[in-house]
Give the backbone structure.
Amino acid sequence: MGLLLFLLFWAATGQAQQSQEQLASHYYSNGDFAQAAELYEQMYKRAPNKFYYQMLFRSYLELEQWKDAERLAERRLRQFPKELDLYVDLGQVQERRGERKKALKSYDAAVDKIGYDTKQIADLCQAFETANHTEYAIQVYLAARKKMKNEYAFVSELATLYERSGNYEAMMQEYFDLLDKQPRMMNQIQIALQRVLSETSNPKVSEGLRSALVQRVQQHPENHQYLEMMIWYSLQQKDFQFAMVQAKAVDARFPDQGGETLMRVANIAQSNQAYDVAQECYATVAKKGKEGPFYFDSRVGELDVQFARLNRNFPIENKKLWALLHDYEAALAELGKNEHTVPLMRNYADLMAYYADSLQRAADMLYDILDIPRLPHQLRDETKLALGDLLLFAGEVWDASLLYMQVEKANKNEVIGSMAKFKNAKLSYYNHDFLWAKTQLDVLRASTSKLIANDAMELSLLISDNMEEDSTFAMLERYAEADLLLYRNQLDSAWDAFESIATSALSHPLFDEVLLQKAKIRIRQERYQEADSLLGQLVTLYYYDILADDALLLQAQLNEERLNNPAKARECYEKILLDYPTSLYVDQARKKYNELKAATPTNL
């Protein structure tokens, strides 16, 4: 019976304590600090734990009861002298009373008394940070490091505190000290620095990193890690030229690497369209000779860069085209036709088919790929799609469709299967089988590939929006024929076909599509001012249409790359951001807008 009464009493006491704690928390949250303090005083007397102490101390501060707060902190410090964060509480009270010197003595006392207990150190630092004394939190870690005789202790914590205090150079030095001790931490350090660089627009961050790196490279010219960090930093800043200079320095000092660093810089430069840098890097590695571990990749890379550079310029200079084709032929003769040279063979076929007007030689090259023994499934199907495109270009519609169907059937749930299905649907569109094409396109609108889904939606809408009231497709048939002429690179005939559509009626839903296609033709013909005017008309007259953001993006690229008018390009990118916030091009437009703004802020 006695035990039962005890248990009942204990349960009732616990419930009362919990209820009182909830009531105190309610008072504190609602700003009734006097009531909260009264309850926390009672609870702290019964159970002098740290939580009740902290809530009572905060209540006293809110009420500006400085003496009560000071007595509370001093009394607890006598009871628990190892709770060094109590010195910070004392200092806060003294600061609020205007006793600055006394407060600093309290803070200094806390730093002087730290031991080896990492929890004690962390709690003290947290208290200083909460009190907005980051400089003291830094002192705590530095003193603890000295006490432990470990100059690499608390690197991450100190780096974070230096970052918060704006001392970016000191932050970098912490990371680099760690790199000296543990080179394997380079990747983690790069991730940390990348976060800092991406989260702030403060130029002092980048300047601090560069300054610290230059200093370390000068102090330790033989240290491979710092050269690698300098290259990494240069790539982050998209200073590919400087990255190449550093990569060459690494290559000269560590020739046993065979040009691995140069190849890495080349790949990143190429993906960012810094073709001059990429080509020089590849060429430098290729000059090491066939015995080098990256000779094959560097030869392929050189040609890929030339292909990408040439492919961005239309029309292509005949002399440059045939020089590049000759380089491809020489490379294939040297490296052979095999699984690893398939990218070269594909590019060669593209150049032959679409620029050199040599369809048969292009087809022969693609068939050569398909004849390679044990060709991986993915490469085989990609080549079949390329061959299908070539046959469609040559007018062999049914053979092209057969290849597309083969790839689709073999890759039902893959992106390449969806691409084959889209190509076949577009072929049906070219062939005036609009309803069948739309059925396939509507299925593709749910594709896992955002690009395919978007292209499918646009073509599906083109068909549905341009069905005549009598359920015929008279105008759309003319448009599809003109579109096919453009695909086959018959520019003059395509222009005439689109022009006839534009002049055949006072208005039609296809007119915005016609303007866009005419602009593309004029770009290919290097009549850039006319193209700019056509795109401007589209944006002005059809600002509400689905093609408006496409036209703005093309107009921005045209002004940036061809008309040397970065101011207008930036205006177009900005218009996408402001007027078409749901556009697929928003991320691309924001990136280019910021680049142009940073490049010439006073001239735009």
Q: What stands out?
A: Residues 2-29 form the longest helix (28 residues). The chain is about 75% helix and 0% strand. The chain has a mean pLDDT of 88. Residues 549 and 576 are 6 Å apart (CA to CA).
